[in-house]
Design brief:
- By secondary structure, the chain is an alpha/beta fold.
- It has two domains: about 180 residues, no CATH class; about 230 residues, no CATH class.
- It contains twelve helices and 16 strands.
- The strands form seven sheets. Strands 11-12-13-14 form a four-stranded parallel β-sheet.
- The longest helix is centred in the C-terminal third of the chain and has 37 residues.
- The protein is extended.
Length: about 450
């Protein structure tokens, strides 16, 4: 697709607008008819090949087999659309009828048996995005004529359906929900610039002016609460994650472990706050789907906690390995203790006494040598006294999406280090590299 100035329009006229030349479509044939469409069921499987979810009766054009169809169906098709089958057009002066917005006909809500619907076709998705983009362009007088607006809409639909082009995830998640379905949602704290007054305005709902931007760079100040502080960043990141966007920040302003506080105490260090932010990111399903939050952390190389930061992910992954091995050892030793009690041939009332049950004493000793906590050993014996004959503990694996990794921190961000030229020069010349407190700028480690 290309844009140029129509010959009959003065190229120097700023109000002439864009003339859109068709490259893939024709004004005489609907875009939808240029593709072969098929309806299928999509199986979503885990790493072991087990079906975890099935999405039925989804329509896509040819070429969306495999990963493209699975991603679009699972992540981008809107799952909840009130009044999906009862939409009405909203007439708007100066806007072509085919570009009018739609909203549910609330008068039919009481009689509808299936008021809440969902997107089930790629065409609904492509139409929602391309239609909204065209509507915005028309409202801002981008196009030279209605013919050019229609050409733009058709070309964009074709590019999306043919996978020649694709926008970022927040566009798929949010764009066109208000235009196509009248979805508003409560205000979330977004701001926008009024195109007529050029003034900052607070959004009255979430989707009329959506959050379609992919990436944000945010600052953070060395304060716990208040605007620009640590807890404020938690809220700002949550707002971005909710609508599918990603965020990155340089955390070098935050005091390191042991640095003095104004109240006379000492800072708990950067890592303690990074863990909070990491858990918050992991708890939010980006864009309201199963997509993980996109988060980036950067730290200057002269930060006093730089070594802890560099080793953070590695140490957390070591915890996962310990959890996997520990759960297996606990299962094995717990049942050994249970078996020793169950197979005791003496007085049943003394089967749980170590001084009387030699096999139990051996099993307990093996459990202690395997680093099973003694309070847990006591619990196992107490359960045996209550009549339990076996125990089953949750086992963990190394799947990065499994419960093992959910128990540790540092798994929801891409971590990077800002390395200045001075460090490389220090390496080449054999000089020391000092780490500095954030507050006093004096050497924290020399």
């Amino acid at each position: 697709m290309q844009t140029s100035e129509r010959e009959s329009v003065n190229a120097g006229d700023a109000e002439s607008g864009l003339v859109v030349e068709r490259r893939f479509t024709s004004p005489n044939k609907p875009v939808q008819e240029q593709f072969e469409w098929s309806t299928t069921d999509i199986d979503l499987k885990d790493a072991k090949g087990i079906t975890v979810r099935k999405i039925e009766n989804i329509e896509f054009p040819k070429g969306f087999d495999g990963v493209p169809g699975k991603v679009a169906a699972d992540k981008y098709l809107r799952k909840v659309v009130p009044g999906m089958d009862h939409l009405v057009k909203i007439p708007e002066d100066g806007v072509p009828e085919w570009l009018w917005r739609s909203k549910p006909d609330d008068a039919k809500k009481a009689e509808s048996k299936n008021w809440v619907g969902k997107e089930t076709s790629g065409w609904q998705l492509f139409h929602r995005l391309a239609g909204c983009w065209t509507y915005w362009g028309w409202k801002h007088e981008y196009f030279a004529s209605e013919t050019d607006a229609r050409a733009y809409y058709d070309e964009m639909c074709f590019l999306l359906a043919s996978q020649r082009s694709a926008p970022n995830s927040p566009q798929w998640f949010n764009t066109g929900l208000h235009w196509a379905y009248g979805i508003e949602g409560p205000a979330q704290g977004h701001w926008y610039v009024d195109p007529l007054t050029a003034e900052d305005c607070k959004s009255v709902n979430a989707y009329e002016r959506p959050q379609p931007h992919a990436c944000f760079i945010q600052s953070i100040q060395d304060r716990l609460v208040g605007e620009g502080g640590i807890t404020d960043l938690v809220a700002r990141e949550a707002l971005l994650f909710k609508f599918g966007s990603g965020t990155g920040s340089n955390f070098s302003n935050i005091r390191g472990d042991g640095e003095p506080l104004s109240g006379g105490g000492q800072s708990s260090g950067l890592l303690s706050f990074l863990m909070i932010l990491d858990k918050a990111a992991g708890a939010i399903k980006s864009g309201g789907t199963t997509r993980r939050a996109a988060k980036m952390i950067t730290l200057d190389l002269d930060h006093p906690d730089i070594q802890q930061y560099v080793n953070w992910k590695m140490r957390e992954e070591e915890k996962v390995s310990a959890l996997i091995a520990g759960a297996a050892a606990l299962q094995k030793n717990a049942n050994n203790i249970m078996n020793a009690i169950n197979n005791f041939e003496g007085d049943a009332g003394k089967s749980t006494e170590i001084t009387e049950n030699i096999e139990l004493a051996k099993a307990v000793k093996r459990a202690v040598n395997a680093s099973i906590a003694q309070p847990h050993i006591k619990r196992i014996i107490d359960l045996a006294k209550q009549g339990h004959t076996s125990m089953k503990f949750e086992q963990f694996d190394a799947d990065w999406q499994g419960k093992g990794y959910l128990t540790v921190s540092g798994q929801n961000s891409n971590n990077s280090v800002r390395v200045p030229n001075q460090f490389m020069e220090a390496v080449e010349t054999g000089k020391d590299w000092n780490l500095y407190w954030r507050t006093e700028k004096s050497a924290a480690i020399e």
